[in-house]
Amino acid sequence: MVDDLEGISVFLAVAEARSFRLAGERLGVTRSAVSQSLQRLEDRLGVALVQRTTRSVSLTEAGEVFFDAVRPSVRQVRDAMQTVRDMQARPSGLLRITVSSIAESFLSGTLLAGFIEACPDVKLDIAITDEEFDIVEAGFDAGVRLGEVIEQDMIAIPVSQEQRQCPAVSPAYIKRHSRPRHPRDLQSHACIGWRPRPDTAPYRWEFTENNRDFDVAVDPAVTTNDMSMMIRLACAGAGITFGMVETFQPYFDRGELVPLLEDFCPPFPGFYLYYPRRERQPLKLRALVEHIRKSARG
Predict the structure, then answer these.
(1) Which of 13, 88, 216, 241 is the most exposed place for a label (fewest CB within 10 A)?
(2) Cα distances (Å, whole numbers) of residue 146 to 35, 100, 138, 201, 285
């Protein structure tokens, strides 16, 4: 029975890799050991499962039938074994997360510091980017983005309160120029805009009036992909910028910036940690999710 299970595992590795060498590397054994184990399985079944040539490995008709039949069952057994191990195991390994640059509540450090203390065997690799891409294809375990841009097939849990965006400007700029009364007035002001990368158009500033959303395409005097640069320029009186109130709040508190057009800037759902649906999530990711939920409960 043990030999059969071992042989089936070897067969699956060969069938998935289509290579004895790659299967051996995946299993941590030699190419010769893979070949011998597979041969013993074929001898017990009395049928060839794999067609071997000097250049390639392919499945026979019987091999295709066997592969389709045993693969789901073996996966369930592996998942069950890992689940039992996880009951005694501590979360560990590398957890890769991509985070929007404006997710201040997540990047402030408090939440992550608590997680690192609770799970010292987990190493975090955090990529800060505003580009949108398939996190699974890029090899990330999870991402943090505004809820409105997360794909519907993802699992998402909140990591912030509701958010607001608004224009921000220095008191010195307001002294030199008239204060805008409506978002469309921004088109006659010096603006400091944002775009995620050079080959995209500047972000259109979004507002709401009478429960209807609209945007304003300002003509920025300066465009950058760095929020820190936008804030420094705004504080220096170079123009009006636009972003998250949460990001601007320390500058509002110190009087370096003041908010504009707040009546046109209602709150909206904030940031979420999101990750793909899987039958069994990695323990390190489950630990982060539980930590976030525990923190939200206070």
Answers:
(1) 88
(2) 50, 8, 19, 20, 19
